[in-house]
Amino acid sequence: MNLITKQDTSVRRIAAVGMYDGVHAGHRFLIDYLGVEARSRGLVPAVVTFSRHPLSLVRPLVAPSLLNTLDDRVRLVGEAGAQDVIVLSFTDSLRRMSAREFLGELKKRFAIEALVLGFNNHFGHDNLEGMEQYRAIGREMGVEVISAPEYRGPGAPVSSSVIRRHLMDGRPDDAARLLGYNYHLRGKVIGGKRLGRTLGFPTANLQLPAGPLLIPKTGVYAAYVTTPDGVRRPAVVNVGYRPTVSGGEDSGKALSIEAHILDFVGYIYDEEVMVEFVKYLRPEKNFAGTAKLAAQVKDDIAAARKLFDKKD
Questions:
Q1: Strand partners, 89
Q2: Are 83 and 230 in contact (CB under 8 A)?
Q3: CA 190 to CA 149: how far, in whole Å?
Q4: Confidence grade of residue 290 (pLDDT, cut at 50, 70, 90)
Q5: What is the C-alpha separation between 187 and 269, in angstroms, rounded?
Q6: What is the CB neighbour count within 10 angstroms for residue 164?
Q7: How far apart are CA 252 and CA 117, in angstroms?
Q8: Which strand (E) or helix (H) includes residue 256?
Q9: Does 157 sit behind a cis peptide bond, omega within 30 degrees of 0 on the bond before it?
Q10: Whether residue 64 has a cis bond before it, omega within 30° of 0
Q11: Which of these, 312, 28, 16, lies nearest to 180 by C-alpha position?
């Protein structure tokens, strides 16, 4: 997979344009179709995406939290079959382009000779209606516009917004069915209050990269943590405000993500780990003391082990 961020006309391309947030089952279906059309025309399959969500510029107050960092999105699009991933900076000038101007830019800057439009896909500030309008403009610009079939596989219709809702409702398993993988976050392990170690359950505290990433519903999850050695390990993860430690007051307290990796001994501070959310176990609670908290953590670990034993 080639990442392209500036003009490149070294090969003739066919492209599909979109945000591709989550790179879910519907996106991968479209990329598969892009590959079929690319092979039949002798063109390189490319995905054109954006460095940030368009709504972050157009209507920032309603811009959604994202399901992937840009790096993860590019990686997943490449794994789905795109040979080239073209990342455009979503600027005010790009936002103001008409469909005709945008097609012209794609052809001039990236040698895009054909464009695959997915179901309900559109571009350009002029809000064209119907595939025929796009095809007519494409003919004028020398870009073939191709309509992709609608995804009708498991979970259809699939959308990033539905996946976000599942995650915010504490249903990572439902989100995973639409994504085709477990929702995950990557972060650097940083020092914390070390209460977990005192209780006999050391935790890795995650520092997430800057950006509007979606954090699932607060509570306790069965999860996998991929440690710096590349091993994917079962874990129990708490997303929340640690009310027992923080006096039960959420106000003014930072949200934390803490992972207890089962049966793991190792030094991973300042290293990056990946947390995959598998199953919501329970809401976050305020316990009357650390002894009751420790007893609950033991129950959480037992529930996670039972879940992972079934999966194995």
A1: none
A2: no
A3: 46
A4: confident
A5: 11
A6: 20
A7: 45
A8: strand 256-261
A9: yes
A10: no
A11: 28
- Name beta bridge partners: 16: 47, 116
Provide the pLDDT confidence category of residue 250 given band limits of 50, 70 and 90: very low
> What is the DSSP secondary structure assignment for residue 25, as one 8-state letter?
H
Measured between alpha carbons, how far is 130 from 209 in angstroms, rounded to an integer?
39
pLDDT at position 183 is 98
Place 282 in a pLDDT band, splitting at 50, 70 and 90: very high
DSSP state for residue 22 in the 8-state scheme: T
Tokens 């992709």 appear where?
148
Helix (H) / strand (E) containing 108: helix 99-110
Residue 129 has a pLDDT of 74
d(CA 56, CA 127) in angstroms, rounded, equals: 19
Residue 251 has pLDDT above 50, yes or no: no
Structure tokens at 284: 């976050």
The answer to whether 205 and 262 have CB atoms below 8 angstroms apart is: no
What pLDDT sits at residue 194? 60
